[in-house]
Amino acid sequence: xxxxxxxxxxxxxFTRGHEDIVLRGxxxxxxxxxxxxxxxxxxxxxxPIELMISKxxxxxxxxxxxxxxxxxxLTAEFAKKNDAKYLLRGLRNTTDFEYENSIAQVNKHxxxxxxxxxxxxxxxxxxxxxxxxxxxxxxxxxxxDFLPYHL
Length: 151
Ligand code: ADP
Fold this sequence. Notes:
Blueprint: E1 4-9, H1 16-25, E2 31-37, H2 49-59, E3 66-71, H3 75-81, E4 86-91, H4 94-110, E5 115-120, H5 130-138
Parallel strand pairs: 1-2, 1-4, 2-3, 4-5
Bound molecules: adenosine-5'-diphosphate.
């Protein structure tokens, strides 16, 4: 039985912090599905979804154990449909913990076989967040150091 993990997020944009979680996750799971939560009806993304899909694919080119998909339903439902029994998430600080703790409890309630697995951020990526990158990019700042691909 393959161990499939879902790594869900907005990934607006996908950062070096996210990349680190995925690469470390590959040591724990057979397959990782990077699942971009997306609601086509009311998209408020900063980076277009198509751009992010292609950049994430480019980042993990030649890595057959990683897939990229979008979804617009409950994460627990999407995990079930894809036979993913694990939800991979990253933790940077206590704010992340508070948020992740509640989500994990709800997901477990919705799909009892689903285990959330948390990897603590690598210190060098601890300060990277998608929201700060969006802010820097909006004012024409250089965000290249935070991303594993060229925009
Ligand atoms: P969401 O919108 O669901 O919070 P994000 O795209 O912001 O999704 O993040 C997806 C996951 O990656 C979350 O578990 C988040 O805590 C984690 N994450 C984000 N940035 C980092 C980082 N720099 N290091 C480790 N984990 C991170």
